UniProtKB/TrEMBL annotation:
Protein name per UniProt: 4-hydroxy-3-methylbut-2-en-1-yl diphosphate synthase (flavodoxin)
General function of this protein: Converts 2C-methyl-D-erythritol 2,4-cyclodiphosphate (ME-2,4cPP) into 1-hydroxy-2-methyl-2-(E)-butenyl 4-diphosphate.
Ranges for domain IspG TIM-barrel: 42-304
UniProt GO MF annotations: 4 iron, 4 sulfur cluster binding; 4-hydroxy-3-methylbut-2-en-1-yl diphosphate synthase activity (ferredoxin); 4-hydroxy-3-methylbut-2-enyl-diphosphate synthase activity (flavodoxin); iron ion binding
Keywords for this protein: 4Fe-4S, Iron, Iron-sulfur, Isoprene biosynthesis, Metal-binding, Oxidoreductase
Cofactors, names only: [4Fe-4S] cluster
Organism: Scleromatobacter humisilvae
Matches recorded under Pfam families: GcpE (PF04551), GcpE_C (PF26540)
NCBIfam families: ispG_gcpE, PRK00366.1
Enzymatic reactions: (2E)-4-hydroxy-3-methylbut-2-enyl diphosphate + oxidized [flavodoxin] + H2O + 2 H(+) = 2-C-methyl-D-erythritol 2,4-cyclic diphosphate + reduced [flavodoxin]
Domain IspG C-terminal: 320-421
Pathway in which the depicted protein is active: Isoprenoid biosynthesis; isopentenyl diphosphate biosynthesis via DXP pathway; isopentenyl diphosphate from 1-deoxy-D-xylulose 5-phosphate: step 5/6
Gene from which the chain derives: ispG
UniProt similarity note: Belongs to the IspG family.
Length: 435
């Protein structure tokens, strides 16, 4: 085995070579759709930021309950919110949900989720069709053969009439069986047949692309078409979207369907979406978490925001760097302070977002001992290095890389929070004053 480690005497010669490239998400190259409600327009694709969306789990017929959850999701950061439209009663409720949201000054666009009977609901309830800002159609659930083609066309005709974008959302669990069978028959005649999973991948991608062409044939603007091919396994999702992105320039909706609950769903979604987003694949994302008992629906939005922020694609909240703790940090002071600061920053962002432009990119460090504390604090905009086990009972505070003061006593948490507020006022308030 060759030893590639250079001798110390040769280390300097490395500077004569190429520098290590900085990792960054690849550029996205897709069409741009416009999802609007009134004067509020959410662009998806093209040069727009990767958008975050979510879906309610209320009974759509319950107007007030649904409107409240839409509001909660929107305030948490969801830029589009999808609701189930599965019955005549649900379709009739949609305009009233929209009305309630307008009264609350929540202008988030609503997306209607249609399966099986969407052609009837959209044509028989025009107020529903108008109140929605976008339609989601699953080509595997609109009927078979000529009947399916006709029903799909009916839905697209409504979208054209009201100038609504359409997401053609293919799911592996509801794949067009006729298409799958035809591909399997063709595969049987190949000299070297594909694996069954590869046939399924091809069926998903082809269903989406062929459905998009069918929508264009009806008259839908190609810029108003978005595609998704959702899977429930990480590697399958990555494989399908890599294939899809090579064969089309429509805006793409990413999401690991039926991701699961808690840590499992969070980690699986982050793993799949991060790989694709880093490769420049994906224009809008949804993290499909099964809520744990008592958990807010907004948790899926929080995870989606964190994925985008961790990749550096967008900034939503000031980031708090904190050490994990070890034998040097037997005190829980740094843990308590980290949570207090993180909760405080998140709770203030709805107000700060408009008042202090740029604050979402601020970096705060709350460290627990002398090992990495000073270094991390210097690299943050503002940081504090709390004393570890056996260290002097003092906490140096760093602002913009410089040590400015040292806190002591029983009110370090309160004093540091006040310092953070003063820093935000001074640095980001000046931006507002300048304009």
């Amino acid at each position: 085995m060759n030893d590639l480690t250079l001798p110390i005497s040769d280390a300097g010669s490395l500077l004569d070579g190429e520098p290590i490239a900085e990792a960054a998400p690849a550029a996205r190259r897709t069409r741009q759709a416009r999802v609007a409600w009134g004067d509020h327009v959410v662009t998806v694709g093209g040069d727009a930021p990767v958008r975050v969306q979510s879906m309610t789990n209320t009974d759509t017929v319950q107007v007030i309950e649904t409107a409240i959850q839409v509001k909660e999701l929107a305030l948490a950061g969801s830029e589009l919110v999808r609701i189930t439209v599965n019955t005549p009663e649900a379709a009739a409720a949609v305009p009233h949900i929209r009305e309630q949201l307008d009264r609350m000054n929540i202008n988030v666009p609503l997306v209607g989720d249609f399966h099986y009977n969407g052609h009837r609901l959209l044509t028989e309830y025009p107020a529903c069709a108008e109140a929605l800002s976008k339609y989601r159609i699953n080509p595997g659930n609109v009927g078979r053969g000529e009947k399916g083609d006709r029903q799909f066309a009916q839905m697209v005709e409504v979208a054209c009439k009201y100038d609504k974008p359409v997401r053609i959302g293919v799911n592996w669990g509801s794949l067009d069986q006729e298409l799958l069978k035809s591909l399997m028959d063709a595969n049987a005649k190949r000299s070297k047949p594909w694996e069954l999973k590869q046939i399924m991948y091809e069926a998903l991608v082809r269903s989406a692309i062929e459905s998009a062409q069918a929508a264009r044939d009806v008259g839908l603007d190609p810029n108003q078409i978005l595609l998704s091919c959702k899977m429930s396994a990480v590697q399958d999702l990555i494989s399908v979207y890599r294939g899809l992105s090579k064969r089309t320039d429509y805006a793409l909706h990413l999401g690991l369907t039926e991701a699961g609950m808690g840590a499992k769903g969070t980690v699986a979604s982050a793993a799949a979406l991060s790989v694709l987003l880093q490769e420049g694949i994906g224009d809008t994302i949804r993290v499909s978490l099964t809520p744990q008992p008592g958990e807010a629906r907004t948790q899926e939005v929080v995870v989606a925001l964190e994925i985008l922020q961790s990749l550096g694609l967008r900034h939503f909240n000031p980031s708090v760097t904190a050490c994990p703790g070890c034998g040097r940090t037997t005190s829980t002071v740094f843990q308590d302070l980290t949570k207090q600061i993180d909760d405080f920053l998140r709770s203030q962002m709805p107000v700060w977002r408009d008042r202090f432009p740029g604050v979402e990119g601020m970096k705060v460090a709350v460290m627990g001992c002398i090992v990495n504390g000073p270094g991390e604090s210097k690299h943050a905009d503002i940081g504090i290095s709390l004393p570890g086990t056996g260290e002097a009972p003092s906490a140096p505070v760093y602002i913009d890389g410089e040590r400015v003061l040292t806190l002591r006593g029983d009110n370090i948490a309160g004093e540091f929070r006040a310092i953070v507020e003063q820093y935000i006022e001074r640095r980001y308030g000046a931006v507002t004053a300048a304009h």
